Amino acid sequence: MTLSAVASDADDSVAYTFASRYVREALPRFRIPEQSIPKDAAYQIINDELMLDGNPRLNLASFVTTWMEPECDRLIMAAVNKNYVDMDEYPVTTELQNRCVNMIAHLFNAPIGEDETAVGVGTVGSSEAIMLAGLAFKRKWQNKRKAEEKPYDKPNIVTGANVQVVCWEKFARYFEVELKEVKLKEGYYVMDPAKAVEMVDENTICVAAILGSTLTGEFEDVKLLNDLLTEKNQETGWDTPIHVDAASGGFIAPFLYPELEWDFRLPQVKSINVSGHKYGLVYAGVGWVVWRNKEDLPEELIFHINYLGADQPTFTLNFSKGSSQIIAQYYQFIRLGFEGFRNIMENCMENAKVLKAGIEGTETFDIVSKDVGVPLVAFSLKDSGKYTVFDVSETLRRFGWIVPAYTMPADAEHVAVLRVVIREDFSRSLAERLVTDIKKVLTDLENRWTKATMITHVKAEENPDGGGAVVPKKSVKQTHEEIARYWKRLVDRKKTSGVC
Ligand SMILES: Cc1ncc(COP(=O)(O)O)c(C=O)c1O
């Protein structure tokens, strides 16, 4: 028993605000408690504990939306008790999802007529969307190989080593597809299309390009990939397709760079995923995948369910899910329109520029992100001899900021960066405030380093025969090794990445 019961009637006069009567012992962590407690107490206990979570608005690690208009919050709350999958009972919600799919397909220039229904589905996020797109490619490739009486047991996907690890490696492992990764190099942190096409073979189910690398926000050159792949397909007789992981960039490129060809305008692009909960401006829990044509989604992957009253085609990994996020996505589309989305994305870009200029002004960092791409600023230390980006990240936490630090994937592991994602609710004043706090952190770290060096000197003077010898300045290699050790410790401790 972990919760204290009401001691006596007299106790009723004691307000259970702050739940003190109910938390005389440790809170339940392993078993459901024997007795009930009043709802106000349960609320207070949980609310108090949650105060120790970070502030989502200051979580600059995440692309995921942390602010929506109160009107939309109301729609979300009104729909929290609707199971999306009960399509027969909630036909309007289903209709809103279909409208969203159509709007996204048009935004991505799918070859469909004005009134034609697009092929796509709402998901929990880009990860589920990628699983579904990957499955469709795998099944299509297998069907083709079977028809040709060729082996179909060694499918692979070609990607850059910068793919979002948790979702693409998860797909590869769960669905038994080899992930062939194009390595990065210092100064070039996206997939090189030429190298990717070189890696394509007859077992390649697709090449996955990223519109907005998670690490630096940079857009990969999908057009060049399409052209090189088309050439290779002509030479070999294969028909290797492209999937675009536009988790972040899908709601940026159409508004800021309408001329950029990355979507269904390119013939080899057969499917695209986008996170509604990133720059689609909806709270966590919605993603989308759209296919070019019906033929790109094998019919045998679609389930037809009719026990709830009508024929319902479904192609998702989970059956039940909430409806709120779909409704919220439709709200954002009609509330903002093209004009509203463009304004917000332009504003995010402006704030990214302000932040970038402030960070450059410290003369301590190199900017790793590009001006064209997802509005974020990724930056590395010019000199990691005194302190590392991990120290900067940890010290910024004292000011409430959550700014992740991480090393790049192979073959650029020795490069460690900090990354600030600019979302709609990260205003110009917050950007300026962050620059001020970064400067304070740098002064603090510099002072700490000076103090530590002085102590080492004093020790060396006090004990000239050993123990306290003056520490020589670290070589670049030593610093990189130290960064890698630090990173490994951090990963071992957390097992999850702050980069999402
Ligand atoms: C490029 C890319 N793909 C996929 C994902 C996974 O997206 P989600 O969180 O919507 O599942 C992310 C997440 O940051 C991403 O940046």
TrEMBL record:
<feature type="modified residue" description="N6-(pyridoxal phosphate)lysine">
    <location>
        <position position="278"/>
    </location>
</feature>
<dbReference type="InterPro" id="IPR002129">
    <property type="entry name" value="PyrdxlP-dep_de-COase"/>
</dbReference>
<dbReference type="GO" id="GO:0030170">
    <property type="term" value="F:pyridoxal phosphate binding"/>
</dbReference>
<protein>
    <recommendedName>
        <fullName>Glutamate decarboxylase</fullName>
        <ecNumber>4.1.1.15</ecNumber>
    </recommendedName>
</protein>
<dbReference type="Pfam" id="PF00282">
    <property type="entry name" value="Pyridoxal_deC"/>
</dbReference>
<comment type="similarity">
    <text>Belongs to the group II decarboxylase family.</text>
</comment>
<keyword id="KW-0210">Decarboxylase</keyword>
<dbReference type="InterPro" id="IPR015421">
    <property type="entry name" value="PyrdxlP-dep_Trfase_major"/>
</dbReference>
<dbReference type="InterPro" id="IPR015424">
    <property type="entry name" value="PyrdxlP-dep_Trfase"/>
</dbReference>
<keyword id="KW-0456">Lyase</keyword>
<dbReference type="GO" id="GO:0006536">
    <property type="term" value="P:glutamate metabolic process"/>
</dbReference>
<dbReference type="GO" id="GO:0004351">
    <property type="term" value="F:glutamate decarboxylase activity"/>
</dbReference>
<keyword id="KW-0663">Pyridoxal phosphate</keyword>
<dbReference type="InterPro" id="IPR010107">
    <property type="entry name" value="Glutamate_decarboxylase"/>
</dbReference>
